[in-house]
Design goal:
The chain has helices at 2-9, 15-31, 45-56, 66-69, 72-87, 89-101, 106-116, 123-148, 155-166, 185-198, 202-212, 226-251, 257-260, 263-279, 292-304, 317-332, 346-373, 387-398, 413-428, 430-439; strands at 338-339, 342-343. By secondary structure, the chain is mostly helical. It has a two-stranded antiparallel ribbon with strand order 1-2.
Length: 456
């Protein structure tokens, strides 16, 4: 009996949850060390836990200014946690297994396969390619940043921002993030390209590498698979639509010329923030200065997120396309959902609908809790905070995006705990979290009789 319970506790379904929890715990302890703070300063435990969770979950929200509140050693810890979270704790675990025993147990191979690609693959070759892709893209981005501006992007800063961009974390060593580089086209291109590639997913990147290298590296393919086409097309469409909407909204909104400018400058900002809103928390303008309509556009992008198996969060672009196809099929009265000339299995539709419901429900519950902890309901002396700001910060945390309307530093300890759970749930994945909980329960040996109910 004890052996069965132990097997359920450390099954492939629960391993991601345990791994991320362990990484957050160790990261919290590391950030609490005196070496991680400037002399005479120390980080509160809840802030250290929040920062560790945000780094491991590659979110980017932070209750403190890491450029001032952390020493170089502390910033190095954050960089390590971001890299660890971006690649995935499970991937690192499998690399350790490979180096230690020259093989990976089947359970770990199955878990990584389902998490990253959703199918069978050669794990040894896959891990080599993943490491080469990740470190290669990050190295190129770091070199380009340093070459372009060696003063602001000195070697450590260049590496930090390159890793933060590809891992979709959005952490910056500047107190005002990337706002000083708002009109710098080169920095905008480097950061957005890294963020976009990191949000596609390792499977898509392997196919890209295979096509570019003529099958010498990466996946041995002659063209993009149906899955990769779906991810790339949807990602580009979301970025273009988001950029056009925000540009139009802010261009015709009066009184914002002094904060957002007009014309080309506004176009760069709209494009950059539309890329970042889907996956990473970088900002080149004060997000709180945007209109309510623009914030709603970014909330939608944060909710959708990036590609499956990527550094991004959200419900993912494939689930979004399945949901759109499902709604369109209902209007047509068609039972079949067709994406990229292929029908979508009913099981995929069920998973997408479940994921959408879970995300919506968690957002509603967390927003309700934050509306209590961050208003005068619980603390009579606290300043009233608008529901829009609370909702934006909540979706940003659950989507592991990291964009902020300057609310996170003002949160109470209870509010920070709510967002910590959301960042963790968003990084592990609500479906994975649900399956992990289900795996701990013994299966029922019976079913109940069915009865029809009137719906609608």
């Amino acid at each position: 009996m004890k052996s069965m319970r132990r097997n359920r506790l450390f099954s492939p379904l629960t391993w991601p949850v345990i791994s991320f929890l362990a990484a957050i715990f160790l990261g919290t302890l590391a950030l609490c060390l005196p070496e991680c703070s400037p002399p005479g300063k120390e980080i509160a435990l809840v802030d250290a836990c929040f920062l560790a969770a945000s780094a491991v979950c590659v979110t980017g929200l932070t209750p403190i200014n890491i450029s001032a509140a952390l020493s170089p050693a502390g910033q190095g810890v954050v960089l390590f946690l971001v890299q660890l979270g971006g690649l995935g704790v499970m991937t690192y675990t499998c690399i350790i297994f490979l180096l230690w025993s020259h093989h990976v147990p089947f359970t770990s191979r199955e878990a990584v396969g389902q998490m990253l690609l959703g199918g069978e693959f050669n794990l040894r070759s896959f891990l080599r390619q993943v490491m080469g892709l990740v470190f290669g893209i990050e190295a190129v981005a770091a070199v380009l940043l340093y070459w372009h501006d060696p003063v602001n992007f000195h070697p450590f800063s260049a590496v930090f921002h390159a890793v933060s961009a590809f891992c979709n974390a959005g952490f910056s060593l500047n107190p005002d993030n990337l706002m000083p580089f708002r009109d710098d086209v080169v920095v905008n291109v480097i950061i957005t390209s890294s963020v976009f590639l990191g949000g596609l997913g390792f499977g898509v990147l392997r196919e890209m590498l295979g096509l570019v290298s003529g099958k010498r590296l990466g996946a041995h393919v002659d063209h993009f698979s149906r899955f990769s086409r779906l991810v790339i097309k949807t990602s580009l469409l979301l970025i273009l639509v988001g950029s056009a909407l925000v540009f139009s909204i802010e261009f015709y909104r009066g009184g914002n010329e002094h904060t957002l400018d007009q014309g080309f400058d506004l176009a760069i900002t709209a494009f950059f923030q539309s890329v970042a809103a889907r996956t990473a928390g970088f900002n080149t303008v004060d997000i709180g200065a945007l209109s309510q309509a623009s914030l709603l556009v970014y909330m939608a992008l944060m909710f959708i997120g990036g590609g499956p198996g990527s550094c991004a969060g959200g419900i993912k672009v494939v689930a979004f396309r399945v949901l759109i196809g499902y709604v369109a099929a209902q209007f047509r009265g068609d039972r079949e959902i067709v994406l990229e000339q292929r029908s979508v299995p009913r099981d995929n539709v069920t998973r997408a609908l479940t994921l959408f419901f879970l995300y919506t429900m968690l957002i509603a519950v967390s927003t309700f809790l934050l509306s209590i902890t961050e208003t005068d309901i619980l603390r009579g002396t606290r300043t009233q905070i608008s529901l829009a700001r609370i909702l934006f910060e909540e979706i940003s945390a659950l989507g592991t995006v990291g964009l902020s309307v300057n609310l996170t530093p003002l949160l109470s300890n209870e509010g920070k705990i709510v967002l910590i759970f959301n960042m963790f749930a968003g990084r592990v994945g609500l479906l994975s979290l649900l399956m992990a909980v289900q795996s701990l329960r013994p299966k029922k040996a019976y079913t109940h009789a069915e009865a029809q109910l009137p719906i609608g």
